[in-house]
Amino acid sequence: MTTARYRPTWDLVLDPLVSCKLCLGEYPVEQMTTIAQCQCIFCTLCLKQYVELLIKEGLETAISCPDAACPKRGHLQENEIECMVASEIMQRYKKLQFEREVLLDPCRTWCPSSTCQAVCQLQEPSPQDPQLVQCKACDIEFCSACKSIWHPGQGCQENMPISFLPGET
């Protein structure tokens, strides 16, 4: 048998409610989550839904504070995100982060083969000069600039002037 703990009404006043800036609901502190970087506070359910939506949609890899007026422009740390979401969503988040890192790294590129999708290392961090890249996973040789099969001595197809057939303008 369980017994409900009696709590006098004047005792309820000691537990202040905190307002969530997302749903505008008021909750006890135990149901709230504070973002470490900016100290903004939201109800845990809203913050969890916000984080999950951004990860599922692949919209952001650096998840910012949902408060548009956040004075510190805070971001959630990886350990904060990990505490909020299921493991498969966290794996997606880490995959998105890795893909973004490769995309922004001038020394790495993706293998263009649809069956491979390995990350390839460039010899020189010079994106304007096409260079031969050989994928270590599938041995394909491709151009670092246009991702087509390696074409020594020729310009990339995307940079070649458009030629019209006779009679076309």
UniProtKB/TrEMBL annotation:
Pfam families: IBR. It is a single-pass membrane protein. The keyword Membrane applies. InterPro entries: E3_UB_ligase_RBR, IBR_dom, TRIAD_supradom, Znf_RING, Znf_RING/FYVE/PHD. Pathway: Protein modification; protein ubiquitination. GO terms for molecular function: ubiquitin protein ligase activity; zinc ion binding. Its EC number is 2.3.2.31. It is found in: Membrane. Keywords: Membrane, Metal-binding, Repeat, Transferase, Transmembrane, Transmembrane helix, Ubl conjugation pathway, Zinc, Zinc-finger. The keyword Zinc applies. GO terms for cellular component: cytoplasm; organelle membrane. Residues 16-169, 20-66 form the RING-type domain. PROSITE patterns: TRIAD, ZF_RING_2. It catalyses: [E2 ubiquitin-conjugating enzyme]-S-ubiquitinyl-L-cysteine + [acceptor protein]-L-lysine = [E2 ubiquitin-conjugating enzyme]-L-cysteine + [acceptor protein]-N(6)-ubiquitinyl-L-lysine. GO terms for biological process: protein ubiquitination. Belongs to the RBR family. RNF144 subfamily. This is RBR-type E3 ubiquitin transferase.
